[in-house]
Amino acid sequence: MIVLLVSITLAITLGSVDIHPRTVWGIALNHVPFLGGCVTEDWTRAQHSIIWDIRFPRVLLAAVVGAGLSVVGVAIQSLVRNSLADPYILGVSSGASVGATLVILFGAFSMYGQYALSVGAFLGSLLSIVLIFSLSRIGGQNSTVRLLMAGIAISAILSGVTSLIIFSAPNEHGIRSVLFWLSGSLAGAKWEYLTIPSLVVLVCLAVLLAQYRSLNSMLMGEESASTLGVNTVQFRKLLLVITALLTGVIVAISGSIGFVGLMMPHIVRVIVGSDHRRVLPVSALLGAIFLIWADALARLSFAPEELPIGIITALCGGPFFIWLMLRSSYSFGGGGR
């Protein structure tokens, strides 16, 4: 937690305008009820606006998104029992991309105002989930393999739909905005955007922690988990719903940010082992810290221009993925330490 607080503080101070850490927390404490009168205001209005209205919500959103992606990574790797699984393997992000593209390029869901992008992305996620569920149950079966195959198929189809929408877009500026969003971005962060993602991440993390014994059992296989009293069919459905909900909400607010859900669970398992009672909270913490610094790098690397944060995570995640494949001593759950 200390590393997280330090990361938040330093990330807020970094930018075109250098601000002292004391000023950052002075402004933050000034907004806390009953404490505001105890803080001496030694900052300018411009500093207050930069810190409180722009940088603070962005850095906190990065922490929430990073934590959520890491938690959903743990969940989906347990769901499919595959150490190389990523939160986007079920194709949910492709559905979100279709909804968001329609909003940006054609003004869909404009009745929701500033929340139109989030609503469009989330509805697209729901559409992909329904299609994946329906396909995986054809023939009366609902195995993990069929679920993955359905996810890959739906993801390919919806990615094609997104490309078709972009190709038929009426304006060039809209295309640029869509491509930037598809690579992930936290540039539009506002305080009001934090509430729903934060609640969803906290609730899903609490539910998974309450089921940590079942998660541990699933690592040994469904047959072994069944002998230990786990209703594998119902539990797999629970994991799928949590995975879809977390991914949909996060993609709706930040765009497609890959590899965080792949990297963080692996790193954490090497550090603390495979017990989900420790893996889940530590993954959330490490994911929050990682994405805070990834976003800071995206902001500062080519300032005043800004890189999509998905580029930074891909540059980190790609080599990590290759290393993971080449490391023959690694086994799922951290057993290769």
UniProtKB/TrEMBL annotation:
It comes from the Bacteria. GO terms for cellular component: plasma membrane. It is a multi-pass membrane protein. Keywords: Cell membrane, Membrane, Transmembrane, Transmembrane helix, Transport. It is found in: Cell membrane. GO terms for biological process: siderophore-iron import into cell. Pfam families: FecCD. GO terms for molecular function: transmembrane transporter activity. Belongs to the binding-protein-dependent transport system permease family. FecCD subfamily. This is Iron ABC transporter permease. It comes from Brevibacillus nitrificans.
